[in-house]
Specification:
This protein has two helices and two strands. The protein is largely without helices or strands. The chain has one domain. Strand 1 and strand 2 form a beta hairpin.
Length: 100
């Protein structure tokens, strides 16, 4: 893999790139049914891109292409209530992350 010029983000997707917001919490089915199922991101031309909000079991996050790549750390928890002693993740590099 060739080296990128300084200041150029990795991956084929041009800026702006997205950081996924992940929260570890439990929400009852009743409350979940009342929450939004889509998000609308405004594009430079004033139109909107529609994204789907999806609830995912923490054990299924290990293989998701999310950034920052914390899926493996979440997926390895012993329970949804497991205490996380160190929330720091390893550095993200071209060698350990596939940029999308």
């Amino acid at each position: 893999m060739g080296r990128r010029p300084a200041g150029v983000p990795p991956g084929a997707t041009p800026p702006p790139r997205k950081i996924h917001l992940l929260y570890r919490l439990h929400i009852s089915q009743d409350v979940r049914a009342s929450l939004a199922t889509e998000e609308h991101d405004e594009l430079d031309d004033g139109t909107f891109e529609t994204g789907v909000i999806e609830w995912v079991d923490y054990r299924k996050t290990a293989d998701l292409p999310i950034f920052p790549p914390l899926g493996p750390a979440l997926g390895s928890l012993t329970s949804p209530h497991a205490i996380v002693g160190d929330a720091a993740l390893p550095a993200v590099t071209d060698e350990n992350y596939t940029w999308v």
